[in-house]
Each structure stands twice: as C-alpha cells, then as structure tokens.
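Bench log. Compound arrived from synthesis this morning; before running ITC I wanted a structural hypothesis for how zinc ion sits in the protein. Inputs:
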Amino acid sequence: MPLVTLKKVLTKANKRNYAVGAFNINNLEMLQAIMEAAEAERSPVIISTSEGAINYAGMMELGSLVHIAAKRSKRPVVFHLDHGKNYNLVVEAIKSGLYTSVMYDGSSLPFEQNIKKTKKLVAMAHKRGISLEAELGSIAGIEDFVSVEEKDAHLTNPDQAKDFIRRTGCDALAIAVGTSHGAYKFSGASKLDQKRLTQIKLLTKMPLVLHGASGVPSNIKNLCIKYGCKIEKAKGVSDASIKKAISNGINKINIDTDLRIAFDAGIRKFLKDNPEVIDPRKILTPAKELITKVVRHKMKMFGSSNKG
Ligand SMILES: [Zn+2]
C-alpha cells in the first residue's frame, strides 16, 4: 500500500498502548531486512533516514527504495526523516514529496526559539499532509548529570511539554528521560526516569517518542566481540525498561545501534568462516538475517506484532 503518515500509525498505537519501532536504514540490505521482519510479524513499521544516511546514500535514492518496498507491502509503512537538526534539510525533506513524516530537532535551542521554528515547520508539513515529530529536552544518559538541578535542566519538563505541544501543533514529541544515543548508554544498570515519563503522558496524552533506545543485546554483542569488534563496554537499555516505558506511554522507539551491531556481527562472522568468498551478496546475507532477527524481537517486545 502507499506510505502512511506517522500520525496515523501513532494515533492507533497511542489508543491501544503499544509502540512502533523506527528503524534506521543506510542501504538496500537494511531496508530489505526490516521489511522482511514487518511482514513476518504483520507489524506497522517506520523507516528512518538520518542526515548521515542521506549524505551516504542520497535522499532520492533511499526514498525511492522505501516507496517501492511500501507499495509491495501490505503493512503500514511510514518514511521518516530522523533528527533534522538542520532546518533547511527538514524543509528539503518536506518539499521532496518522499517523506510522510519528518522530525525537527530544535532541542538545543532556547525554549521559545524551539517553539517558533517547530511551529513554522509544522505548518509547512501539515499543508502537504506530512506529520512532524519535535523534540524537547536533551537526550543524554541520567549518569551524565551530577546534580538533581542539572538533571532537571536537561530532561523534559512535563509542564513545558504540554505548553510546547499546544503551541506548536506537533504530531509526536521526543522526550528526554535518560536515554542516550550510541552504543555506550550506561556504566551500571539502565535507568530511565519513568516517573517523569508518566507525568508527561498524563499532561499531554500525546504519542511520545523514545530516542537512544537500543538494547545492545548481549548475544549479538558477544558475536561481534568474538569476531574481533571492540565494543566490550557497550551497554543499552534493558528490555524490561523499554516495556515499562511503553506501559507508561511511549509509542515510538528509535532503533539504530542494534541494527549496526547486527550488521557488523553478520559480516565479521561470515568473512572469518568463509575467507574464500568474495561475492557481496553472499557476504551481506547473514548480516541481513541477523537484522531481521533483531527487528522481529523488537516488534514483539514493542507490542506492534499483528497490529499491521
Ligand atoms: Zn535520536
């Protein structure tokens, strides 16, 4: 079917209390692997491209692949611009006619300026029938803050979130409750500010988004390490924390790092076991299979299986 908007997919998830995964792609193989998981799980899916992915593979190139994949699929597929920190890139994505959703990340700006810019882009996106995700608060780990005051200054303030949504008209809000981007999120157990999340949901009733939410699953991590990748200290958010966050109101979860680890593990293992093979199709197949496995696990855990 044709691509659908983020608003459509998340409104349903919000009503029925589950989350939809937003998976980052850089190439054809990652897209194929994610779509295979969506079909197998009969799950809605959000395909994300970051600015880095666009620089690597091209907006038009990735967008065309996603459009064809969605057309062939029976599942609801959203094509989403992840983390537009660059205002002009968000405008370009909206005008490209490729995306059904964009994120504008003005979280590093002062509150009023974030509202002003977000509001402008919301108007532009809505005019074209595209959804907009905004961000409030800085996405960093709880351990990055030494004092309570510092934590309060960086994590999303519930009253501000309510005000922000009312004044911008955004369709989804990425909040900061203690997750961080990348593979090194925690030194000890994973901690999220679930109380803050509950308050934000209570006040806003909006689809809320969790960034920096990869789990760094130990089976995949250990496979990477076994075949030479140096990521011993990598640590993600536990499945238990994610499930709790969903029950407290998270409806979209971004996954990038876990796909990278799976891709890496698949390639490393295959090359080590098959040093005589030079065929890229053969080299990349185990990587794709591992990504599909990771994505299927997420869809089950997020509760989006059988919702598409
Ligand atoms: Zn993010």
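What the model suggests: Residues 83, 139, 181, 211-212, 254 surround zinc ion (CB under 6 Å). The CA atoms of residues 64 and 98 lie 8 Å apart.
ITC booked for Thursday regardless.
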